[in-house]
Amino acid sequence: MIKAVLFDLDGTLLDRDASLVLFVENQYERLQAHLGHVPKEQYRKRFIELDARGYRWKDEVYQQLASEFAIESISWEILLEDYVSCFQDHCVPFAGLRDMLAELKHRSFRLGIITNGPGGLQLSSIRALGIEPYFDVVLVSGIEGVSKPDPRIFIKALEALEVEPHEAVYVGDHPANDVEAAKAVGMASVWKRDPQYEAANADYVIDDLGELPKVLERLQLRIEPFKQEDAEELVELFYGTVHSVNASDYSSDQLAVWAPEGQQAEKAEQWRVSLSRNATFVARVGGKIVGFCDLAKGGYLDRLYVHRDYQRQGIASRLMDHAEWEAGSQGESEIHTEASITAKPFFLHRGYRIIREQSVERQGIRLRNYLMAKRLQGDRL
């Protein structure tokens, strides 16, 4: 179970690129008497190039600027001091930052920050964002004397939060310093996509912070065997999914015979028997059932449904991992199913082939589906 979430700062919580542009433009305006002989756009562009996205310290940046642009009426030391004092006044958070942190605290996650950089500057940026109260631990390399990707700084944070590595997630934008470093100590990793890098070997990828709570739900996902008392909730999930998700591919008349209203209680009794007879797997987030599937003898996948509010979160894939493993353990060389129009792309993506298109009649209404199969030999997980 995930108990803690740790974050990088720059490029993850703080939009450093936007913050730096604001600061540089403001510094130029305030100190125009000393910098005005350099065109503003040229000064800004060169500053950002020399900064190397924060991986080059500003003493070198300002010395280089002073040399290139013949800045003589103000020293590079004063420019550096101005940066250290005033950068915090230009900190730009990524969209949804505080709402995301508030939601995670509401869910009782322990929160931490591990960031490289000078201690005073990084702490000032955190305070400027107004997020310091959300965090239980903040470790800055300039204070700790050790920087990411060194595992020691991750281990120190985990110890402070009193969690094991497998109980924690690290969120960052750097493929090596954040993603690989966190995985190396046994943490789950979330890459906040940065267009500077082509890819990262992360467990999950997000484009904005608002996606993180859903990712954490997926990490909390548990696959359990079916219990008879689950039947009513599974039927309710089935009805809700068919009449919403599948409505994009089937008419109201077709949905009405697929999941007829008023028959939920009867279906729950029928399913209690059939799901107990089959190998049935139930996906839960917390105490809530968010999906299920069942495998009958002969390698036939009878049902696969995911709650309408939990679509496209990898739940169906997790369930199918279990179903395919079960089929292989039963000695089956192939698993087959009758997939709806809606589910067909999912099964194709998993390597299933279409054997034939079918038209099934129910109460005089015809529904189209596809008999699909996948060879398990060599594919068993």
TrEMBL record:
Residues 221-377 form the N-acetyltransferase domain. Signal peptide: none annotated. It holds the Pfam family HAD_2. Transmembrane segments: none annotated. Coiled coil: none annotated. The keyword Ligase does not apply. Keywords: Acyltransferase, Hydrolase, Magnesium, Metal-binding, Transferase. Its cofactor is Mg(2+). Its EC number is 2.3.1.-. InterPro entries: Acyl_CoA_acyltransferase (IPR016181), GNAT_dom (IPR000182), HAD-like_hydrolase (IPR051400), HAD-like_sf (IPR036412), HAD-SF_hydro_IA (IPR006439), HAD_2 (IPR041492), HAD_sf (IPR023214). One of its GO terms (molecular function) is acyltransferase activity. This is GNAT family N-acetyltransferase. The lineage of its organism: Bacteria, Bacillati, Bacillota, Bacilli, Bacillales.
